Description:
Number of strands: 7
Number of domains: 2
Oligomer: single chain
CATH topology of the largest domain: Gyrase A, domain 2
Helix content: 25-40%
Mean pLDDT: 86
Structural class: alpha+beta
Amino acid sequence: MIKIKLNRQENTINLAASLAEELGSLEVFPIIKNNEIVLDDSSSSRILSIEEVLPYIRRSLEKSKTKYRYIHVKGETIYIEDVESGEKISEPPLLFCPFCGYATQYEEIYWIHVKSHGVI
């Protein structure tokens, strides 16, 4: 059985869903196990080779909009170096107390803390 390993769980799930659509007609089904996808070809009339699977994987990566650096094949395992999507959730900056180093991301709590030093 062919295994596909990715770095990020969300990309693994998206790729498995896309591969299920692509490979369903060939009776090959992706099964997610940890951060890898195992292609179950036990129902298929023939066993797919890595060379036959790679175009489906590339197409599925494009379809699921998964960004990746490279695809590396070693034995029966395909390694995909996937990267984060361009959108990042920005976290508010940390506010540090100049007197004791206390840190918080909430401005209200920061001002209450600074006032507790008796300065303001």
